[in-house]
Amino acid sequence: xxxxxxxLLHIDLTSRAISLIALEESRLRSYLGGIxxxxxxxxxxxxRGVEPFAPDNPLxxxxxxxxxxxxxxxxxxxVLTKSPLTGFIADxxxxxRFALELKRIGVDAIVLTGRASSLVYIFVGHGKVEIRExxxxxxxxxxxxxxxxxxxxxxxxxxxxxxxxxxxxxxxxTISNEGRHAGRGGVGAVMGAxxxxxxxxxxxxxxxxxxxxxxxxxxxxxxxxSLGPLTEKYRSIGTVxxxxxxxxxxxxxxxxxxxxxxxxxxxxSGEALTENHFSRRHGCASCTILCERLFKSAGGEEQxxxxxxLFALGPLCGVDDPQTIISAAALCDEYGLDTISTGGxxxxxxxxxEKGRLPADKNLSLRFGDxxxxxxxxxxxxxxxxxxxxxxxxxxxxxxxxxxxxxxxAMHVKGLEMPGYEPRSxxxxxxxxxxxPRGACHNRSGAYEADFSGAVDRLHADSGRGALVAExxxxxxxxxxxxxxxxxxxxxxxxxxxAADLLAKVTGWNYTAAELKxxxxxxxxxxKLFNVREGWRPEDDWLxxxxxxxxxxxxxxxxxxxxxxxxSGMIRSYYRARGWDDAGYVPEKKLIxxxxx
Amino acid sequence: MAAAGKDLFANGSAVIxxxxxxSRMGTPKALLRFDGEPxxxxxxxxxxxxxxxxxxxxxxxQDLPPLRANxxxxxxxxxxxxGGIYYGLRASAGEFSFVASCDxxxxxxxxxxxxxxxxxxxxxxxxxxxxxxxxxxxxxxxxVLPHLKHQLDRxxxxxxxxxxxxxxxxxxxxxxxxxxxxxxxxxxxxxxxDYALAQQKWDERKRFETETEKEDGAxxxxxxxxxxxxxxxxxxxxxxxxxxxxxxxxxxxxxxxxFSALAVRLPVLAGRVIDAQKSALSSGxxxxxxxxxxxxxxxxxxxxxxxxxxxxxxxxx
Lengths: 597, 317
What we know:
- Chain A has about 600 residues and is an alpha+beta fold.
- Chain A has 24 helices and 17 strands.
- The longest helix of chain A is centred in the C-terminal third of the chain and has 21 residues, at about 515-535.
- In chain B, about 25% of the residues lie in helices and about 20% in strands.
- The radius of gyration of chain B is 21 Å and the shape is elongated.
């Protein structure tokens, strides 16, 4: 078999049982790798209704056919579990050398179940699996754990680990490797619940392609394209470039979504950061784009910042000091916290404090724009100290705990905090956020692309958006399952055609564009089926109340809102485009069409 | 800010100082041929779109071509710019004056209009370009006359000493770049080489304007352009070192014309952000008009006052 190994590694941490299980070719053809294979395994391995922190909730690491082929941007892996934040699917991607090592240990996925009796780490290498003691790493950051594990092994293994937040089951904690994070949905908390501190991999297996010369030719072509103007934003400034544009377009969520422009945008713009704080450009293994930007903190340390981190710890919390944001991002990385959910939950808490909903002696002096309070609150969340223990549950549970009307300003979908794309002034994105299986997500579809392209009127809702969102989800599902980075997406002319050809060259399968498109739909559908089985109801596909009740107060989108009727209409158009019933359930016929049994 | 037009500043005057020694140039600067006419005539015409009152300060006995201007002579020759500003302001009819020397061929009317618009509440408006004040491209209110007289009496011949004594509005480079990205308004000719460079730049500009004229079948008129502002984001902002640029275009101009004009104004964008034919954006870039519509068709007409954003085509974050 080329491109795949045709088996998965199952480790049960309770019994310490280890087994290799065959993966039939038909499943790999149907779901590819990464998010697709992971979602298919998650559906199979998750007991219906399992509590996310229960030992039986599987934590799945999935590799993919293009990983290790030398194709630019493909050193990625997927992490899936039932999310402790949403109760639905958590499907996260991360990247870099851990991804290559996962492929080289000779399995397509690792499925972890059970719970170790004390803190452990797993080592896979030299043809064996070891479960090793990790109590002495307790409380250490993922980066420190990486070093300590390698010292312990005496070998240069690639390590993915959790920080203190994961150990403490903060519901939005991450799994980190080499400064990259499987960030959204709380996969780190599930790893912590399994008493698993880290996974260290040392691979030895060659990665084979059916047509090495053909793959090499495509790799060269993509490498060339990846260095052209289509990726210049990512190569020259990085994703932080979004901030000044979003501010000017009235799409920058500010002060907990009360505004969509930020008076301090100039100070924290990507351009200003680049001019005043830039330290170094960096990238994942196998990548030619190198979109990562490291900025210098006041103390001289380097810290990676992406747009989402910048927005969530900056404008969303009213903070306009770049150094505070850099420090806050460093704290999140140190503890292993998803920066979007951290910012989102703290913005909710700031509004609570402003409205007197938090006891004065317990509100950590939180208020919009107060950088010192922001920096003090992040450790409180990771350590679950005082009010931090409430915030560690995420904005939805925190609002339920505080009660009153505080749910009105808890800005999440299905429990996942909103990313930095204002839905009222990006109507296609509004729909994408509402219906995404993992909650308010900007990654598992690129719905905003239509809004920023001129193909639609971004300020007005219409019934054409359903098809656009569905197409974007399917397309992204394929990208996320091959795996190819989204930042390469514009470099393809005919994506499905080129990608099918590439997949054929790697696997030796006769794979067509139409088959690939259908795989995208199938992958998205299995995620939805997982959610339905875990209790999804039609009301879960919705947006926070504030978005539907308040018009934007200023900027170019001043006065623009989104009504419940408009949102309902777009959601109906989406279900119709998907061939689902009007309530959003997947009919049997659709399952048969897609070959989902 | 109002668009530049005839008599924009009814209460203002323009003062041109022409009485310098021109020693390095070797020939009187005011009489250098520029665009087919003496430089001072060229400048007077450019400034007449903003101010109807024009004062030219000349050295005693200096030759000048016929000008529609109030010509005054330095009472004492070669006292430097402080003397020139003093005599010019004293002879002007306006409450304030824009003061320039006669060797600056590229005065940008939009920049001057912006500087003039800043004088409310101040005695002087002082552009600060490349780490230096540019007193010979500044605005002065008549209220500074006693201070200038005092400086002349004491032999303080550097105009910038005035800024410490009166209410001065310093205009930083970033603000200036919005109206004159390359700072050509501050380009003065001191040597034959400067003169040759200026002529070359002028020819380039004329050639571009003629081409645009041919393509559009419409004429470019200094007095009735469509003014638009281009806002730059991300890479374009960083490489052009400016956030926005004002452009004047023919009445029926399209986005294509905006991109062409922008490539001329900010050559650093040509090739990288604006494509080789200079009539469209490169594939990695998108255009939004007034923060509302993303426009993909470059033949779309623009309207006066439009704000045109140029940003990365990919909004992924």
